[in-house]
Amino acid sequence: MFQIVNPQNKEKTHLDLLSDETRSAIDGWLKKYPREQRRSAVLGALHAVQDQNGGWVSAELMAAVSEYIDIPLVWVREAAEFYSMFHTQPVGRHKISICTNISCMLRGADQVVKYAENKLGIKLGETTEDGRITLVKEEECVAACTGAPMMIVDGHYYENLTEQRIDEIMGGLD
Q1: Annotated binding site for [2Fe-2S] cluster: which residue ranges?
Q2: Of 14, 62, 157, 165, which sits 20 to 30 A from 7 (CA to CA)?
Q3: Which of the 8 DSSP states describes residue 139?
């Protein structure tokens, strides 16, 4: 197990990585489930540690969640690596996900991806040099088919995209 050692030779566990605010948020999720179903709190816990860590979840924070919830680390890693809402590498201040599923593709998602990549000078999965924007890897489906093509920017849905609308949205990001 990974452990952090401080200068006074006092060993710390992964739990020391969790802020009081993060612990409180995880406790709120744990209260919603019986002890034998505490695995159900893992998504809420991952959101809390991702928020604490500037938008991504490190391996050490996954271990902290595992210890705090008292579930196997593999369960935490499975959730963090499966769901596109979690990032396991550092990301920009703003995260843009472009849906490329069939409905969006049929209504121009490929052009939206190309336009965004050209505008930002990066490819899907990359972050701008200034750390401002990450184009998240392809989003399979975000259940907004009637508004295709669409993208999610920092958790907010934008539908029926045009190049002009993309310029407006990205221009409003700090």
Answers
A1: 99, 104, 141, 145
A2: 62
A3: B
Cβ 50 vs Cβ 81: under 8 Å:
no
Tokens (6 digits) for 24: 């409180």
Residues belonging to the binding site are: 99, 104, 141, 145
Residue 128 corresponds to which amino acid?
A: T
Amino acid present at 98: I
Beta strand 94-98 with 11-12: parallel, antiparallel or unpaired?
unpaired
29's CB contacts (< 8 A; 6+ apart) are: 40, 41, 44, 45, 48
Write down the pTM of the prediction.
Answer: 0.77
Burial 127-154 (b: 16+ CB within 10 A, else e): beeeeebbbbeebeebebbebbbbbbbe
pLDDT digits (tens, 9 = 90+) for 90-131: 999 999 999 999 989 999 999 999 999 999 999 999 999 999
- What are phi and psi for residue 121, nearest 5 degrees? 75, 25
Task: Give the Cα separation of 14 and 22 in Å (integer).
Answer: 13
